[in-house]
Amino acid sequence: MSEKVKVINLVKTFGDNEVLKGINLTVNNNEVVVIIGPSGSGKSTLLRTLNKLEEPTSGSIIIDNVDIANKNADINTVRKNIGMVFQHFNLFNNLTVGENIMLAPVELKIEDKKAASDQAKRLLETVGLSEKFDARVQSLSGGQQQRVAIARALAMNPDIMLFDEPTSALDPEMVGDVLQVMKNLAKNGMTMIVVTHEMGFAKEVADRVVFVDDGQILEQGTPDQIFEHPKNERLRDFLNKIL
Ligand code: ADP
Ligand code: MG
Prior knowledge:
This protein is α/β, with parallel strands linked by helices. The chain has helices at residues 43-50, 75-81, 97-107, 113-126, 142-154, 172-187, 199-205, 223-228, 233-242, and strands spanning 3-14, 17-28, 32-36, 58-63, 66-67, 82-85, 160-164, 191-195, 208-213, 216-221. The strands form 2 sheets. Strands 6-7-8-3-9-10 form a 6-stranded mixed β-sheet, sandwiched between helices. A 4-stranded antiparallel β-sheet has the order 2-1-4-5, covered by helices on one side. Helix 6 (172-187) links the parallel strand 7 (160-164) and strand 8. The longest helix is centred in the C-terminal third of the chain and has 16 residues, at 172-187. The chain is globular, with a radius of gyration of 18 Å. Bound molecules: adenosine-5'-diphosphate (ADP) and magnesium ion.
């Protein structure tokens, strides 16, 4: 097992609010790590820091042996290799589905338009939306928009995918299709860090589940260890509330 991401003593403060209080976390290649924890515990901040959407206050984030917490780290290289999917899909409503997916690779001159469009069509197929290339974003359901957002993230050929509560804003009947796309990604070996309240997904797909509370990792283990044999009192409380 080779290390893909190694977070060492990561601290993030906003003003005098210490949101991440020394996170240590290793994610191996091809591993699926699910992060659970109460609202406001710092889960989104952790993901956003991994993607350099937030500057870490202190600590290291080593990805492929490069410390991206270092101010000199090239932010574009970091972002290129890490795809992120948000709760609110953040698609461009004034563009078509295909244009959304093609945007980054074309703007960053990674692909010409033809190659980007071919790839967008391929990706739409993998998320079950092959007929939607020319559709307006607003004509899609929330679940379809989220699958487009996943395709858009994949268009940069990332080797890590971060998901921040990707199904939380969806109507219940849309959730399954999005989770299925994520399961397929996992099966194909994508390294994934997923913040979710979908415990069924965590049990089925996660190699490891990490419980974050108040800016700290209080427990981590296999889904069986976390869900069937939780040790930490606050984890047990949390599970009682959500299960
Ligand atoms: P979670 O995703 O677990 O619900 P967050 O990471 O969103 O938690 O938030 C953790 C804490 O950090 C909250 O108290 C939140 O108010 C604070 N926080 C998050 N982002 C910012 C920001 N950009 N500026 C100030 N405070 C923030
Ligand atoms: Mg959050």
